[in-house]
Amino acid sequence: MKRLIAMLELQQELNDATNGLGWESGSTDSGKIIDWRRCIYLESAELVESYPWKHWKNIDAEPDYDNIKIEAVDIWHFVMSEALRIYKVESKGSISDLAREISTQKSYTPFDTTVSTEHDDHYQEIIIVEEFIKSLFCNESIEILIDKFFVVALQSGLNLDSLYSLYIGKNILNKFRQNHGYKDGSYIKIWNGQEDNVVMQKILEQNSNIAPQELYSMLEDSYPLA
């Protein structure tokens, strides 16, 4: 459960820094409305786009599971944010209490202990993602949303260990983006022909035990000058 607590704490810190204290009330410190569920279903749609579902285009292509994993991690950022918001607004308890609640979901145990490497039917995988999206539009509880997320993440090739590793990487990348002009639009997302997500993944693959600050420094070294 320590990894759940660590991720929730980092997400709280990122949201506080990006949106201002009190974002749980539903808006940023600049007055922009926050809708985490909209964030989740749009990121889920991007995940679906990583599958070759189009019958008229690239019909022999394979799913891009590297990007599917990244999209799942992006979704996790927003799922945690919605959970943190609800816990704050409804005064349900601490981050440790929230982590404990997450760990009781039925899909958490297989997600914590296994990793899926079999991808027999990517059309069925898309259906599972769409079931997850449906739960958003049906306004199902955060507990159901979290439970369904773990199913999506597991079929994406993630388990708790790899989710944690990629989340830490993406969390640091998000901080890097914010510090390099993401809000005002001056940030450069393509680095020497590769999206920054890809650069971050390669750094993690080559440095499995990298510390967060070291990752930030390596991103700084890789960032193209305008």
List the helices and strands and how they pair.
Layout lengths: L1 H18 L16 H13 L16 H25 L5 H8 L5 H6 L8 H16 L4 H14 L4 H20 L10 E2 L2 E2 H11 L5 H11 L4
Antiparallel strand pairs: 1-2
Helix pairs in contact: 1-3, 1-4, 1-8, 2-3, 2-6, 3-7, 3-8, 6-7, 8-9, 8-10, 9-10
Provide tags for this entry:
226 residues; globular; two-stranded antiparallel ribbon; all-alpha NTP pyrophosphatase fold; 10 helices; mainly alpha
Report on the architecture of this protein:
It is a single chain. The protein is an all-alpha fold and 226 residues long. The chain has helices at residues 2-19, 36-48, 65-89, 95-102, 108-113, 122-137, 142-155, 160-179, 196-206, 212-222; strands at 190-191, 194-195. It has a single domain, classed as Orthogonal Bundle (all-alpha NTP pyrophosphatase fold), CATH 1.10.4010. The protein starts with a helix and ends with a helix. Helix 1 runs parallel beside helix 8 (160-179). 63% of the residues lie in helices and 2% in strands. Strands 1-2 form a two-stranded antiparallel ribbon. Strand 1 and strand 2 (194-195) form a beta hairpin. The chain contains 10 helices and 2 strands. The model has no long low-confidence stretch (mean pLDDT 91).
